[in-house]
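Reopening this one. Same input as before:
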Amino acid sequence: MGRRRRKNFKNYLLNGQSFCLPFNMPQFMPTIHLTTFIAAPIERVFDLTRHLAIYKYLMNGKEKFSSATASNLVNNGETITIQVKHFGKTRWVTTKVTAFQKPSSFVQEQVKGDLLHFKHEHYFKKVDNGTILIDLINFAGPRDVVGKIIGKTYLKKYLEKFFHRRNKIIQQYAESEKWRAVLT
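Same output, byte for byte:
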């Protein structure tokens, strides 16, 4: 956007990069912070978190996903598209892994989709008796008017429930022998 300001837009700086938001848009984005302890080695938790089998198990009748990965493990530069039907409208988000440091972290960011912004940071910390999985999710609701209204009341709760459920599945697999069927 350069140095000049566009009419009805305001310049912001995020992580060292300049971007513009409409004046009527909130100057903050909702954030979800989940911390989950998993009694399993960090490498196992890291690989289960990015494994497509976990996504397949997680999706219910309202949700679908597709991936352009070369293997069952999502790696740097690869994408996942999640499609969800809510209130009669199909919504979708395509995320790309934009940062990857095995086994300590990876980041997924929206490259296409209905949301104004979506970024999911995954952090893994090795502790004496297992791994701490930390999810930081920043997002801004859907682009359309109906989506903005529903997004304010519904989206944060939906995403919290979705990622809490995902973490429970990862925990169940990592702490039992189920992980062997997925990772070997």
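So the earlier flakiness isn't reproducible anymore. For the record, The mean pLDDT is 83.
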